[in-house]
Specification:
By secondary structure, this protein is α/β, with parallel strands linked by helices. It has a single domain, classed as Phosphoglycerate mutase-like (Rossmann fold). The chain is about 35% helix and about 20% strand.
């Protein structure tokens, strides 16, 4: 049986607005972040999309996003947390290193500063989401996570060229729709609710 996963990035936060590095650290949703998350909830209702189960990162910005979307019970999981950037947490995004040209990410850069490597983030996200989708009655699942963590998860299942071509928009509150069967994820589409609303 083919199952569906709607993997979503949290709403805009204060650190997003201030262009600060935000991984293991946290900051609250802005008014815009709250409004965008509520729009996603309205979109799901309009599409008559309901979820058997809902999950969130343990971080406040992800939990608050999910609670703006739905009132259904949900479970918080550390495996869905954002990439840990070590001592760079809370600093200006201008301090981020250039992407590793082979791995198309920050690679191992943050490990020396107490953070995570890209492959560590990728594997914990994949393991967590696989374990979620393997459970019975999990036919359609909503999970709220983070930009860096979701990007690394996508790299498990898509080449960098495919991500550039197929994931056309990955701003705050963007939704990644994937199917799951035989322990394999298949990317379907990225959904930007705000953009869809503007196009109507």
């Amino acid at each position: 049986m083919v199952k569906e996963l709607y993997l979503m990035r949290h709403g805009q936060t204060l650190f997003n607005q201030l262009h600060r590095i935000q991984g293991a650290s946290d900051s609250p949703l802005t008014a815009q972040g709250i409004a965008d998350a509520k729009e996603v909830g309205q979109y799901f209702k309009a599409q008559q999309l309901s979820f058997d189960h809902a999950y969130s990162s343990t971080q406040e910005r992800a939990c608050d996003t999910l609670e703006c979307i739905t009132s259904q019970p949900y479970q918080r999981l550390k495996g869905l947390k954002e990439w840990n950037f070590g001592v760079f947490e809370g600093q200006s995004e201008q301090l981020n290193p250039k992407n590793d040209s082979q791995r198309h990410s920050y690679g191992d850069f943050f490990v020396q500063y107490g953070g995570e490597a890209d492959y560590e983030v990728r594997e914990r996200m994949n393991q967590t989401l696989t374990e979620i989708m393997q459970q019975p009655t999990h036919d359609r699942v909503l999970a709220v996570s983070h930009g860096g963590a979701c990007f690394m998860f996508l790299q498990k299942w898509l080449s960098y060229a495919e991500i550039q071509r197929r994931v056309t928009d990955f701003h705050n509150c963007c939704i990644l729709k994937l199917t799951f069967a035989n322990d394999q994820f298949n990317f379907v589409e990225s959904i930007n609710v705000k953009k869809l609303k503007q196009e109507k």
